[in-house]
Amino acid sequence: MPTSQPYHRVHAIGGADLDAAADLLGRGMADNPVHIAAYRGDETSRALRHGLLMRTLLRRSPSLQIEGVDRGEGLAGIAAWAPPGTCQPTPDARLHLLGRALTFGPGTAARLLTWTRAWARHDPGAPHVHLGPVSVDRHLRGRGIGGFLLLRHVGRLDVAGVDGYLETDRPEAVGFYERFGYAVVDKTDVLGTRCWFMRRRAE
Ligand SMILES: CC(C)(COP(=O)(O)OP(=O)(O)OC[C@H]1O[C@@H](n2cnc3c(N)ncnc32)[C@H](O)[C@@H]1OP(=O)(O)O)[C@@H](O)C(=O)NCCC(=O)NCCS
User: Fold this and answer.
1) pLDDT band at residue 7, thresholds of 50, 70 and 90?
2) Residue 50 lies in a domain
3) Segment 83-108 mean pLDDT
4) What is the pLDDT of residues 69-82, one digit of tens each?
5) 2 located within any domain
6) Structural domains of the chain, count
7) Residue 47's domain is classified under what CATH number?
8) Which residues contact 185 (CB under 8 A, 6 or more apart)?
């Protein structure tokens, strides 16, 4: 397992920081395969739309925990996770997410629904901490920021003795998460792109 990087400043994200975190997720995920399939369009418009959807998700998910890494030049990466029993959006969040998705047009909204329903169908029935979204700003990837966030996350799982779970649509990310004890438990094609479901068993 990689070692921690003590030079990163890490902090909980809430309130006024939420929009910056959402915008980072928009930029960070804009070239992920299922995001391309759902939003279509060019990368700039995908980043903008996904950022807007993430603003709604982060603001309307009171149980979501969010941690950010700052290397002195603003937010560099974030990890968000839902504690056991809270990973599905509340009725209020669903309503606002649907409203936001519809502003992108009915075709995009329908694809976003197909995607999120396909992922939700795979959620484990057993208690778990649901990790995601996780993203590091593109120009800062490969420098240990994602690993630092993951190391902290799995440390919390170990202390709590609870299973971890996540989904990803990036083949490179599968190996990344395996380094932290997650294993692929299922895979499926969503909107014509491969997605992996990964679980980390409590010790
Ligand atoms: C996956 C991600 C969070 C990793 O963060 P990171 O800061 O780049 O990770 P680290 O520097 O700690 O570790 C690098 C490892 O991440 C993996 N990785 C996955 N996607 C990567 C990417 N786009 N660029 C660089 N490394 C990536 C590689 O296995 C790499 O291993 P290597 O150093 O042996 O090549 C980050 O690359 C990212 O935000 N990707 C786009 C969004 C995404 O896919 N999020 C996760 C899916 S839910």
Assistant:
1) low
2) yes
3) 96
4) 998 888 999 999 99
5) no
6) 1
7) 3.40.630.30
8) 197, 198, 199
Our measurement of the distance from residue 152's CA atom to the centroid of its chain's CA atoms, rounded to an integer in Å, reads 16
Residue 56 lies in a domain: yes
What percentage of the chain carries pLDDT values higher than 90?
93
Q: Does residue 3 belong to any structural domain of this protein?
A: no
Sheet holding 128-136, edge to edge: 9-12, 65-70, 75-82, 128-136, 163-168, 193-200, 183-190
- Of all atoms in ligand 1, which is nearest to the CA of residue 143? 11
d(CA 62, CA 173): 27
Type of residue numbered 129 = V
pLDDT above 70: residue 166: yes
Tell me what the mean pLDDT of segment 8-24 comes to.
Answer: 93
Ligand 1 midpoint to CA 183 (Å): 16
- Phi first, then psi, for residue 88 (nearest 5°) are -90, 140
Whole-model pTM?
Answer: 0.94
Q: Which domain holds residue 142?
A: 9-200
Map tokens 């902290």 to a residue. 152
Binding pocket residue ranges, ligand 1, CB within 6 Å = 28-29, 32, 77, 132-136, 141-147, 168, 170, 172-173, 175-176
* Residue 13 token pair: 């994200």
